[in-house]
Amino acid sequence: MKHKINPDYATIDWKKMDDIFAKVGWSEREPQDIKASFEKSSYSIFIYDEADEVVAFGRTVDDGKYYAMLADVVVDPDFQGEGVGSFIVETLREKLQDYHFITLTAAPGKGDFYKAIGWKKQSTAYIWPLSEKQERQHTEENE
Fold first, then answer.
1. Domain span at 72
2. What is the largest CA-CA distance in the chain?
3. Kind of pairing between the strands at 2-5 and 67-75
4. How far apart are CA 72 and CA 52, in angstroms?
5. Helices and strands (DSSP H and E) totals, the chain
6. What's the predicted TM-score (pTM) here?
């Protein structure tokens, strides 16, 4: 497999990315909205299989100095368990060396993955749930 950091977004198949989001069970997204989100990100990484198809990706969102977060770290289930997710997270984290805080929100059920690669669960992070699903999946009251 190969990877690209901040590639030419005109070369990305945004429909394929939407398909991968759906495959992992994340909410439905529109390809043009996915593209717009990635275009506003500081760093992005795309992982390609032997057929040069995107099979995993991730991105960062930050203020340029103090706060940064990893977002949309997604690996096609057919490629999970091969170290792809760890590679994405580590590569993006390395790009954020000089920040004061680096955070992420793990997908429901993926906390153990992040703990296994050295991330620590915050004791003071909060969310303003925008839906019952977010409240159910991302708040302590529902753990």
1. 2-104
2. 44
3. unpaired
4. 20
5. 5, 5
6. 0.89
Which amino acid belongs to residue 18? D
**Angle subtended at Cα 71 by Cα 67 and Cα 72, rounded to the nearest 5 degrees:** 175
> For residue 133, with 0-12 CB atoms within 10 Å meaning exposed, 13-18 middle and 19 or more buried, which class applies?
exposed
Any residues with CB less than 8 A from the CB of 130 and at least 6 apart, and which? Answer: none
Torsions phi, psi for 86 (to 5 deg): -60, -40
Mean pLDDT of 8-22: 95
The number of folded domains in the chain is 1
Whether residue 125 has pLDDT greater than 90 = no
Is residue 81 within 8 A of residue 87, CB to CB? The reply is no
Q: Are strands 101-104 and 67-75 parallel, antiparallel or unpaired?
A: parallel
DSSP state of 120: -
Q: Answer whether 13's CB lies under 8 Å from 52's CB.
A: no
CATH code of the domain covering residue 49: 3.40.630.30
